[in-house]
Amino acid sequence: MSDREITQKPYLKLRADTQARDRSLREKVMSLEEAAALVSDGDHVAIGGCTMSRTPFAMIWALIRARKSGLHCSRSITSSEGELLFASGVSEHILTSWFSQGIVWGISRIMRAYTESKRARFEEWSHMAIGLRYRAGAMGVPFLPMRAMMGSDVAGQLDNIHEMECPFTGERVVLVPALNPDIALIHVQRCDAYGNAQIDGLEFMDIDIAMAANRVILTTERIVSNDQIRRAPDQTKIPFIAVDAVVEVPYGSAPHECYGVYEPFFDHMDWYAGRMKPEAEAGIAAYLEKYIYGPADWAEFLSLLGMADLLDASRRGRSIYND
Amino acid sequence: MSDREITQKPYLKLRADTQARDRSLREKVMSLEEAAALVSDGDHVAIGGCTMSRTPFAMIWALIRARKSGLHCSRSITSSEGELLFASGVSEHILTSWFSQGIVWGISRIMRAYTESKRARFEEWSHMAIGLRYRAGAMGVPFLPMRAMMGSDVAGQLDNIHEMECPFTGERVVLVPALNPDIALIHVQRCDAYGNAQIDGLEFMDIDIAMAANRVILTTERIVSNDQIRRAPDQTKIPFIAVDAVVEVPYGSAPHECYGVYEPFFDHMDWYAGRMKPEAEAGIAAYLEKYIYGPADWAEFLSLLGMADLLDASRRGRSIYND
Amino acid sequence: MTEPLDYTASELLAVMSGRILVDGQTAFAGVGIPLLAAVLAQRTHAAGLTILFEGGTLGPFVVAGELPPSTNEQRCTRRANMLLSITDVLLLLQRGYVDVGFMGGAQIDRHGNLNSSFIGDPADPAVRLPGTGGGNDIASLTQMIVAMKHERRRFVEKVDFVTSPGYLDGGASREESGLVAGGMYRVVTDLAVMGFDDETRRMKVLALHPGVTAQEVRDNTGFDIDIAAEPKFTEPPTGKELGILRHLDPDRLYTA
Amino acid sequence: MTEPLDYTASELLAVMSGRILVDGQTAFAGVGIPLLAAVLAQRTHAAGLTILFEGGTLGPFVVAGELPPSTNEQRCTRRANMLLSITDVLLLLQRGYVDVGFMGGAQIDRHGNLNSSFIGDPADPAVRLPGTGGGNDIASLTQMIVAMKHERRRFVEKVDFVTSPGYLDGGASREESGLVAGGMYRVVTDLAVMGFDDETRRMKVLALHPGVTAQEVRDNTGFDIDIAAEPKFTEPPTGKELGILRHLDPDRLYTA
């Protein structure tokens, strides 16, 4: 199934695609719907954040509503957003190191249903291998060496991994190929209208993903002035030259967390997990209908989560700065 | 001259050396003199900062006073501290990408005198190659690939550089070997007594150097509480587990600059450059006598630079935060 | 002698694996039992233990009653010494800064290989499990401690899929595969503490927990396991240890 | 027509090389003439030009009268959009984010190779020069613009040492060496603007500066250089351009 593979671009093509982007300091603010139009069916979409943290949930919500298809997704660790991508038919292929809603909720029934029936594919690489694949992409090299994955069946079932002897030390290392996503979705606490982004707390693999991708959509809790960015340029984590769209979406990671702003909406996540228990596929179909396709806009989705949950998640989120 | 080479450690030796370090959260505050004792003759010493910025000048000053010898030094770009290392006899080998006091002062007469007479060696690698060599060391891999250096005589005159074909894309890349310095000297704006360091402004190659080295001496403008560090852990750039000594040295980069604290002492640097003009070697010998060996302590060295220069450099340094 | 204390199997697991950690070590910990055990160690015999999370946290303070649901939420970062990117925190393993990796396991075999990917034929599995996460990296690059329930279906002759490498086929096969560093150090269960023979790299019982018999271990192990004729016994959990655990996890999320 | 304006050779160099930069481009600039030229371009025809410094600065604001002495001081960072590590800013070149590299040169040959390492035999040099810095990386990975004085000893048949690769031995030799991207784009001097033949990759004059003759260029070039029989001429510096330069460098550090 070659259409289920993520292929590597030749270097000159990678450069030409990057050079063709307008990398000048220009305003890129748009709506979720406009940003969704930048994603083409069949694209390799890299998803920022990790598990339930800084997931670009609003953007994924918009992609599902826009009825995208054939997306190859990649993420460090995949949580409920992956279940929704499979169940909505948006993606049949997720490259990740771990895939379930979260340890406390057990094994994902949706992931199991789709992968065991071969309707979708969970391509497993080690956490570090995925990180180094994005990093190779960000560095503009075709591979990076590493010292894990050897001996394991994780490496054994992959055909694009290569072992070599170091020409300097004679040591054996594994080479993993670069990932250069067609588009990256990243949610941040703040950025300016040009796309200079600051990230608080855990960065996960977001910087490498942004620099590796051929296009970057930033969703952000708030848009700040370029003057504010320039006052502390050592706090900029993603530069405007790498960004193609900026969307201001308060609570854009809900019901997951955004560091320092809100923790996960645990009540909703518990309820969601429980909803999958009796009949997973019917459960998630109903969820998609009510929470994804149903709402008129993102605010209406947040209303469905409820004001009490939102306040509680926010209180817990801000508490990281209480000490 | 094999004693003029920096050799690569086998991986198991690199690990064993690291595991033998006490990496626990413990106080490491000591004097410049005590820290200097951690450096052994013949060590590979990596120097943080770049050109005239965040140079660990006080630490180098202490190493020269301690009459170290045979040090192999490496640095991204080398300025007057390299002239002093050569002229004092502390080092006969500097691996760097560029070596002169600074563009505005022309070609270093000391660098020329020592290298042209073959009393010392300036081993030239490209800026990015040095960065990637430290990064490979920090990552625990024996090499990293890159796409520069090919075709040039810079690569041509090195024997520890290797070309290969990417097994995934067939593209040609250059491999550069890891640098794992025996000891790194890094000057920072602030750190705690355990060695958790924050760096403002330009990082240069300091993070990779610190993580690559087998031992790290931090000099710092000031020591702050561990509580202050823990209040913003995303601002920590070098973790305590990698640090072996913490020395509080106000103006520890003088007469070079420390971002946001002071700019270079330009009057002194101009005077110094002029001092080398008529007779470089006699000039630097006199400088060593008066400024390095002469002072009773670092405060006396600063006194020789003069209060007016210090105030002016500080005013200019802080001005970065005026906007 | 006072009355023996009451404790759950999970509490026993947390206490016994926490005791293996040594003061001054740097340990990569997963959430659940490993994290509880590591914090317990810090608050008993190993105040200078440094905890790392694969989400990117170095040296955090874990708040009682606010245990993180994964290693990637902000709860993992409270009063931490440093936050790093995922790739950079994992690279600490490769660079050699980390002494111990500490995680749970779904299935383990006689040579300490862990499977968290597939039950059954990987090409057509009975169950697709959540996968490696950082498990493969941690097991490849550190001395590993695994804490898990001792059940016959979990302790198998040969795992269906090697997600996180132990000693592979035993003997020198791990080193020969290119994994020159690290290796499986201890497996801690609710029945016993296991290690591995230096030569054959086969799992063996080092000590039984109080009241456990050799036969009980054999009955719950899916392969032939070496147990000394006169086995050693671990010391039972103390009131202090149990008190700390219950303070940390008052809702018994991980210790029910 | 007004009186021709007075300007120094360095000012001419800055104006002429600045004009080559295009609005919207991303340019790696060295200090001295390249930086002055880039800022001049921003303040004339290329407001959307992004400047990068190899010290780690992306999109700075250069304050008039406070020109940085190297690309590594805090003066390079004022009101910048982002600061990166040196390695990471150089990797932007490799990843393809940068259009143009812009630097000075000590010695150049007919195929655009630059030498900033050794005068004479590298094994026993007459002069040890300061070396590549980021020059090799920038020349390997971008379209290059070089600004330098036009002197016979600087424009040589073959450089003593290829520090920063141009087209190496001409023809396809650059690509064949593995340098598949970038290449020498323009050489700007106080006499003329040069480019390179698409096939042979030999340097050729594209335009002479006002008042300069073809013979003057030949006299100051150490190799046979192609000049059209009826050469084009550049437009002289304008009062606006010179005014901006003198505002930026009031002490004439770089434009004396």
What does this structure look like?
The complex is a heterotetramer, with two copies of chain A (323 residues) and two copies of chain C (256 residues). By secondary structure, chain A is of the alpha/beta class. The longest helix of chain A has 14 residues. The mean pLDDT of chain A is 97. Chain A is globular and about 60 Å long. The termini of chain A are far apart. In chain A, the strands form two sheets. In chain A, strands 1, 2, 3, 4, 8, 9, 10 and 11 form an eight-stranded mixed β-sheet that branches. Chain C has a single domain, classed as 3-Layer(aba) Sandwich (Glutaconate Coenzyme A-transferase). Helices cover 23% and strands 20% of the residues of chain C. Chain C is built from seven helices and 15 strands. In chain C, the strands form three sheets. A ten-stranded mixed β-sheet of chain C has the order 4-3-2-1-5-10-12-13-14-15, with helices on both faces. Chain C has a three-stranded mixed β-sheet with strand order 7-6-11, with no helix packed on it. In chain C, helix 1 crosses helix 2 and helix 2 crosses helix 7. The radius of gyration of chain C is 18 Å and the shape is globular. The model of chain C has no long low-confidence stretch (mean pLDDT 95). Classes of the chains: A alpha/beta (323), C alpha/beta (256). Chains B and D meet through helix 5, helix 6, helix 7, strand 7 and helix 8 of B and helix 3, strand 9 and helix 4 of D.
